[in-house]
Amino acid sequence: MNHQQESVIHYNASCFMAGLIRDYLVLKGVRAPIVFQCHCNLDTNLSNRIADFMFRRVCKLVDIVCVLNSASYKTASRYHSNVKYIPNFVETLYRNEPKVSTTLKKICFVGRACRSKGIIEFIEAGKIRTDLQFHIVGPIENSISSLCHTNNFKIWGAQPHEKVIEILKDMDAYILPSYSEGFPLGVLEAMSCGLPVIATDVGSISDMIEDKGGILIPQKSSDAIVEALEKIEDPDVRQNMAEFNVSKVRNEYLIDKVINQLQDVYDQ
Q1: Rounded distance, CA 257 to CA 85, Å?
Q2: Buried/exposed code over 61-97 (b: 16+ C-beta within 10 A; e: otherwise)
Q3: CA–CA separation, 80 vs 47, rounded Å?
Q4: pLDDT digit string, tens, across residues 127-169
């Protein structure tokens, strides 16, 4: 492959074992600086010897490895000496000055409603807290939606992005009980809408909400979701979380902030 001297190759990694083999075969012939972007959680994806071996081989070909969370940063640093943390971004703040409702009422999950995203635990929590409305936005199988047989569930199904944001703005809290994540855009958009976040401590979520924008919970525990909901009943608690999340997005996750970080990487 021939590239002009000023070219930089920004390559989005697959991270999974078979994909890493493909990545190596593609990149070994490149004669330009390579930025290797990992959109996954490396601890999860480098879970066997072949994936470990192939990632190590790929790292010898590239100039910079970019990752989405601090856990992946630590992992990638064992393979490469030049690792950068570049988060995902949103194009705008969806709510500049959040104002929470006095009563916690509407709870939302956004994404593919499958077991690995913790949707079963979300539904179980909804069956316990029947005084709250539990909203599920995103593709959902009939076998999952059939579990939502109490009156406090609303199944929206897949929606256009504009509608998703409209729904989020009408919610009181966002929940993502996922088993594995890289940098979940749903959490980022919920933060931009000024919502408190209840989520499992996976991927970049603890980097995003820290200990101020919501509550981190263990995986596979509907009881933990219920306990977290009790902790955010107080509107003052939710207001503080909402303000932190909007501020965090404004300062770190807007598109211009992230593009500037990428430009610094390219300049390097």
Answers
A1: 13
A2: bbebbbbbbebbbebbeebbeebbebbbbbeebbbee
A3: 18
A4: 999 999 999 999 999 999 999 989 999 999 999 999 999 999 9
Give the span between the Cα atoms of 211 and 59, in whole angstroms.
Answer: 33
The alpha helices in the chain, defined as continuous H runs, are 17-27, 42-45, 49-59, 70-76, 119-128, 142-145, 161-169, 185-192, 205-209, 222-231, 235-248, 255-267
What angle do the packed helices 17-27 and 49-59 form, to 10 degrees? Answer: 20
35 within 8 A of 63, measured Cβ to Cβ: yes
What type of residue is 149? H
- The letter for the amino acid at 258 is V
Secondary structure class of 109 (helix, strand, coil)? strand
Structure tokens, 167: 């729904």
CA distance 115 to 177: 10
What's the full length of the chain, in residues?
268
pTM over 0.85: yes
* φ/ψ (deg, to 5) at 48: -140, 170
State the number of CA atoms in the 13 A half-sphere of 70 facing the CB: 6
176 neighbors 117 (Cβ within 8 angstroms): yes
Burial label, 40 (beta-carbon count in 10 A; 0-12, 13-18, 19+): buried
